[in-house]
Amino acid sequence: MFDLTLFLYGLIVALSLPLLAWIVSIFMKDVSIADSLWSVVFLALCITWFIAYEFTTPRSGIVLALVTLWALRLSAYITWRNRGKGEDARYQAMRRKFSPHFSIKSLFIVFLLQGTLAWIIALPLLAAITGSRPPNLLDGLAASLVIFGVLFESIADAQLAAFRSRPANQGRVMDKGLWRYTRHPNYFGECCVWWGFYLFAVAAGG
Q1: In angstroms, what CA-CA distances link 114 with 74, 154, 202?
Q2: Would the pLDDT of 1 be above 90?
């Protein structure tokens, strides 16, 4: 059964973290930290629901572990990728478009918007953590799909980083490794991850 109280607890968490990140971004004059925060919000939501729910199952722990793997990997990679580069060009464009007072406006059009979207998108995770059905074969398929997705996007990110690190490849399009088979293997991996979490929710009766 859908637990509205837990869902609303999640909203508090989903808005609190972006609010803190927004304060940091004002001092840094860089809202790019929102990218590193994205997956961490999902992890915070899962931890909140896992702790607050009284009747967790083995599935609940597995989902939390997989979300932790996905979230920390993605956040760490984005943080590493953006280190020392200053504010992302997309956010610089937003800063110009929404000036003056972009520092205030960014709270709503970047950080709180991101938190609200994460809260809604995380609904399958809430269903998976609070579902009462016993573990079944669909859980195995779900776990396999999530792990495959994380591995696929991790390999793709590593291949692209290695490609971009070579001066001879500047301005060229990556078409080796996994990038030879799909134009955006990192996003394909993300799709697999989230279809996996959806299957966990279905297995749980969500």
Answers
A1: 16, 23, 25
A2: no
